[in-house]
């Protein structure tokens, strides 16, 4: 239990709201009445000095970044912590990356993760977490793909809502990056063109779902949309977010280079410049004195910030978590469970009389090869980096799970040496894929307008110094967008060398999004996607390989047979067009079969689906699906319900809903799946009214994105 707070105007206001004596709006107004001008302006940007800019990567891992604290009145300000797979401050639980958690298709499990991250965030003295990233995976080459929930708006929305609910039990939740942010190298400059249909019906529904779920804050993206940077984009920040969606919280900028105009951004609806005292500290007071900025606009922003803080603190969990909760045994166990449920089994062919997996319990000699086998490889080293107190590698997990098996490691670069070791083994596990050098957050480049730091940075020695440091950093920190969707050539060579000498070869892929497998896939009898599995990822992998746990993950994106089947991706582009065809939808529309379709994943048992009935209208609905385990062991499946306009020559599948279910051998259950109507609707840009799309729509229950619609039923009844 924490100590009793000292009586202050803010603390008294929170108590009054909790007791039902005042509402948060009234308390916010009372606080604003007591603020000095300096304190009022101080709410609208970070509290740290601009000279701390070079130290941000270090300080982000040490303490919360504070904005808008008013010690005199007891206002704590927003106390910021990232990140998407755990708390970035100190030594914290490293959960699997967001994309891996999307592969669980389990919102209830994601809410548990959100609650754990919220507890650890609060234990580190932060009250605000930017852990909800909902940008769609338009192309798997996006460097920060691992931080999102995949390519589908419905899956993304439901998982993000669960994360939001979990976080908000203890801290304010921030969703990012609003909007259309899904490329990394040119994120500071790229201008995204998008029509009304794609914008509102593809790229925004999951943001709205999180807003409807009560998210406290949004973070704007660096990029431009339709020619305007997002911090000054009033059509989205005000017309859509505030007026159409009714958002009541506050908006912050992305860090340092996300505020392009101190006054215009405030007018547009961006409340806080993060994380330093930069443009606004220099420009807002003079703008109010000159009349370029109204005091009412300043007060409106301050009200939104204070109202949100007070309302959240009055309703959050009252018990202060202890620092002992950080990386606790229960959170480690949760990390292991999530990692286990995220692993996707893509292939499991028979070798001899039985499928290669799970491994024979009596296996005597196992060879583990690949440069990632013994590494603590848990994802990007950018702003989402988590530093756990320990990490279990794939090799360590296998040695722990198979203490009586001789395990030989060959993790060096020599494919010949690996093949020699593999030739005498009962089975071989190849661990290959990506790490922080292949994909991740990009460093700042010299192309960024550093005038945000002040006039002395616009030219001369300080600008040259800043640009030089950025270029120097880029030589040592790679990351960014991926240059290829294939494995490194040495990894592909390793797979081919090992499979040539041992048919009992299992390939484990590590990474944050799709990896092309066509070069070697047919040679491999067993293939798994294990993601960046977090601090317990090695144990989770061993659980699945040995059969101690079921591989229950399902793909949150499509894995194509040809990169050309995806939308074009240019990591150097200054302008891009986003339409409504990407991922599985583009493959469907163009008539291409996937290597592994969206939603795909195998298990160690067989489960059948049958749609029993449904109700549906433009407000949503529900489907009843009979599910039977016809195999000989307990297992799980994700019941997925899709709709498509079957009048089209090539129907395009739209996910409407899903439900994970676990069954014992021979058991059956009728599962109710809630259905989202948005994928079947269209928005009138003039009236903002949503209505059903034209066409002949049908509905189908499946275990992945459907190939055929012959067994479908009419959707509208």
Average of per-residue pLDDT values: 94
Portion in helices = 25-40%
Strands ordered across the widest β-sheet: 1-2-3-4-6-9
| Biggest pleated-sheet summary | 6 strands, mixed
Please compute the radius of gyration using only Cα atoms.
26 Å
Instruction: Give the overall silhouette.
Output: globular
Give the amount of beta strand, in percent: 15-25%
By CATH's scheme, which homologous superfamily of the domain at 342-440 and 490-554 applies?
Answer: Glycoside hydrolase family 3 C-terminal domain
Number of helices: 20
How many β strands by DSSP? 27
CATH class of the domain at 342-440 and 490-554: Alpha Beta
Spans where pLDDT lies below 50 across 5 or more residues: none
Q: What is the name of the CATH architecture of the domain at 342-440 and 490-554? A: 3-Layer(aba) Sandwich
Query: For the terminal residues, how far apart are their CA atoms?
Result: 55 Å
Which structural class should the secondary elements be placed in?
alpha/beta
CATH topology name of the domain at 342-440 and 490-554, in short, is: Rossmann fold
Quick take:
By secondary structure, this protein is of the alpha/beta class.
Task: Describe the protein's topology.
Elements: H1 9-18, H2 24-34, H3 37-42, H4 56-59, E1 65-67, E2 78-81, H5 98-102, H6 107-123, E3 128-133, H7 153-168, E4 172-178, E5 191-194, H8 196-203, H9 205-212, E6 217-220, E7 224-225, E8 228-229, H10 234-244, E9 250-252, H11 262-268, H12 279-290, H13 295-315, H14 329-342, E10 344-348, E11 350-351, E12 354-355, E13 365-369, H15 394-401, E14 406-410, H16 415-422, E15 427-433, H17 461-476, H18 489-501, E16 505-510, E17 526-529, H19 537-546, E18 575-578, H20 583-590, E19 607-617, E20 620-629, E21 635-645, E22 654-663, E23 668-675, E24 681-683, E25 690-692, E26 697-702, E27 713-714
Parallel strand pairs: 2-3, 3-4, 4-6, 5-7, 5-18, 6-9, 13-14, 13-15, 15-16, 16-17
Antiparallel strand pairs: 1-2, 7-8, 10-17, 11-12, 19-20, 20-23, 21-22, 21-26, 24-25, 26-27
Helix pairs in contact: 1-2, 1-13, 2-13, 6-7, 6-14, 7-9, 14-19, 15-19, 16-18
């Amino acid at each position: 239990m924490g100590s009793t707070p000292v009586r202050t105007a803010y603390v008294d206001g929170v108590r009054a709201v909790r007791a039902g004596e005042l509402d948060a709006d009234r308390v916010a107004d009372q606080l604003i009445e007591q603020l000095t001008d300096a304190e009022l302006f101080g709410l609208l940007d970070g509290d740290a000095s601009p000279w701390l800019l070079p130290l941000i990567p270090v300080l982000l891992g040490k303490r919360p970044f504070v904005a808008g604290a008013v010690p005199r009145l007891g206002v704590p300000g927003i106390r910021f912590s990232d990140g998407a797979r755990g708390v970035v401050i100190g030594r914290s639980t490293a959960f699997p990356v967001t994309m891996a958690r999307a592969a669980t298709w389990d919102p209830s499990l994601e809410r548990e993760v959100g609650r754990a991250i919220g507890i650890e965030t609060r234990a580190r003295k932060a009250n605000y977490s930017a852990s909800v990233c909902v940008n769609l995976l338009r192309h798997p080459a996006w460097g920060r793909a691992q931080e999102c929930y995949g390519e589908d708006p419905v899956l993304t929305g439901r998982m993000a809502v669960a994360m939001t609910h979990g976080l908000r039990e203890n801290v304010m939740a921030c969703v990012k990056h609003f909007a259309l942010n899904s490329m990394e190298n040119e994120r500071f400059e790229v201008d995204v063109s998008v029509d009304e249909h794609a914008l509102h019906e593809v790229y925004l529904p999951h943001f709205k779902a999180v807003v409807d779920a009560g998210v406290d804050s949004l973070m704007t993206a660096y990029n431009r949309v339709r020619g305007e940077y997002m911090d000054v984009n009033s059509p989205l920040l005000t017309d859509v977010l505030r007026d159409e969606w009714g958002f009541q919280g506050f908006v912050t900028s992305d860090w340092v280079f996300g505020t392009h105009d101190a006054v215009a951004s405030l007018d547009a609806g961006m409340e806080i410049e993060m994380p330093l005292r930069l443009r606004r500290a220099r420009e807002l007071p003079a703008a109010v004195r000159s009349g370029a900025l109204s005091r009412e606009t300043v007060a409106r922003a301050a009200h939104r910030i204070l109202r949100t803080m007070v309302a959240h603190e009055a309703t959050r969990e009252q018990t202060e978590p202890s620092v002992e909760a950080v990386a606790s045994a229960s959170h480690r166990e949760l990390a292991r469970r999530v990692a286990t449920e995220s692993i996707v089994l893509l292939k499991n062919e028979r070798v001899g009389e039985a499928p290669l997996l799970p491994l024979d319990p009596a296996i005597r000699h196992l060879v583990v090869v690949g440069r990632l086998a013994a590494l603590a490889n848990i994802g990007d080293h950018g702003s989402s980096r988590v530093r756990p107190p320990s990490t279990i590698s794939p090799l360590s997990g296998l040695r722990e799970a198979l203490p009586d098996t001789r395990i030989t490691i060959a993790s060096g670069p020599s494919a010949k040496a690996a093949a020699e070791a593999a030739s005498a083994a009962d089975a071989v596990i190849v661990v290959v894929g990506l790490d922080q050098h292949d994909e991740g957050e990009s460093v700042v480049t010299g192309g960024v307008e550093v005038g945000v730091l002040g006039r002395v940075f616009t030219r001369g020695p300080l600008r040259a110094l800043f640009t030089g440091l950025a270029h120097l950093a880029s030589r040592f920190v790679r990351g960014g967008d991926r240059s290829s969707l294939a494995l490194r050539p040495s990894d592909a060579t390793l797979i081919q060398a090992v499979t040539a000498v041992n048919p009992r070869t299992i390939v484990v892929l590590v990474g944050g999004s799709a990896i092309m497998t066509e070069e070697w896939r047919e040679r491999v009898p067993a293939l798994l996607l294990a993601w960046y599995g977090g601090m317990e990822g090695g144990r989770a992998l061993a659980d699945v390989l040995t059969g101690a746990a079921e591989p229950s993950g399902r793909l949150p994106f499509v894995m194509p047979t040809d990169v050309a089947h995806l939308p074009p991706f240019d990591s150097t582009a200054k302008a891009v067009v986003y339409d409504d065809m990407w991922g599985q939808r583009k493959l469907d529309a163009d008539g291409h079969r996937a290597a592994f379709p969206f939603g795909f994943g195998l298990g160690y048992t067989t489960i059948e689906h049958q749609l029993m009935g449904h109700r549906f209208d433009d407000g949503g609905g529900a489907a009843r699906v009979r599910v039977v385990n016809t195999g000989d062991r307990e297992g799980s499946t994700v019941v997925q319900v899709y709709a498509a306009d079957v009048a089209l020559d090539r129907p395009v599948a739209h996910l409407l809903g899903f439900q994970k279910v676990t069954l014992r051998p021979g058991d059956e259950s009728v599962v109710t799946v809630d259905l989202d109507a948005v994928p079947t609707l269209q928005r009138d840009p003039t009236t903002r009214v949503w209505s059903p799309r034209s066409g002949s729509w049908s509905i189908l229950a499946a275990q992945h994105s459907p190939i055929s619609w012959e067994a479908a039923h009419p959707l509208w009844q």
